[in-house]
Amino acid sequence: MTDKPIALENRAQEGNRLFSPSAGRNKAVIADWLAAQLPPAARVLEAGSGTGEHGAALGERRPDITWQYSDPDAASRASQEAWAREGWPKPLALDLAQEAWWSGLGRFDAVFCANMIHIAPIEAAQGLAAGAAQLTDTVMLYGPFLFGGDSAPSNLEFDASLKRRDPRWGVREWESVKHIFRNAGFNRAERHDMPRNNHIVRLSRH
Ligand SMILES: C[S@@+](CC[C@H](N)C(=O)[O-])C[C@H]1O[C@@H](n2cnc3c(N)ncnc32)[C@H](O)[C@@H]1O
């Protein structure tokens, strides 16, 4: 992990529950999409869960799902615990850049990760792919991506601002993300447009 801030925005707080302005804007569209994709009684691991609002929004739509939150950051895990539905397991301290972070976790119907791979060194994305290959057949990623010369200007500006904070950060090229996951065995990649030049992606083995 870096010593950089884990969020680029000011989070409001009520008790242990943190509120992310960006999650407030995107959680409904993400949860609607996930709710339509996940099988009945799915067990899902979320990596880099942040405040925990995405899992909570999905839980409102799909109370049958068991959501495993995780984050290396302790304050984020406390917030996730405060947002969790009854019966959900305790959030895990998982750092995707650590070796074998997936060890002993068992199997999941899907691994979900939002807005993490651009705000961490590329090793976190590589670790996500390597670990997901041990845990699941389906990965769902949400966030901004670059598409070479067709990249949205706002994402190019965001990329430059991230690199000013930490040269290892940056909005990732979609082709390089596909390559990382293909190397880990996720051969199929479906991409869906989301508001404000974000995408949600489903990576699977077949
Ligand atoms: C911008 S926040 C996104 C939080 C949440 N997923 C969302 O979309 O609102 C990035 C999150 O990734 C986590 N993160 C950063 N580096 C990580 C790593 N190496 N492994 C796992 N999580 C990491 C941070 O702690 C933070 O919670």
| Number of contiguous helices | 6
Can you say what the CATH homologous superfamily is? Vaccinia Virus protein VP39
Structural class per helix/strand content? alpha/beta
Number of strand segments: 8
Largest beta-sheet details: 6 strands, mixed
Arrangement of strands in the largest sheet: 4-3-5-6-8-7
Q: Give the C-level CATH assignment.
A: Alpha Beta
What do you see in this structure?
The protein has one domain: 3-Layer(aba) Sandwich (Rossmann fold), CATH 3.40.50. The protein contains six helices and eight strands, in the order ββαβαβαβαβααββ. The protein is 35% helix and 19% strand. The strands form two sheets. A six-stranded mixed sheet has the order 4-3-5-6-8-7, covered by helices on one side. The chain has a two-stranded antiparallel ribbon with strand order 1-2. The radius of gyration is 16 Å and the shape is globular. It has helices at 21-37, 53-61, 74-83, 122-135, 153-165, 174-183; strands at 12-14, 17-19, 43-47, 66-68, 110-114, 138-143, 188-194, 198-204. It is of the alpha/beta class and 206 residues long. The site of S-adenosylmethionine has 23 residues, from loops.
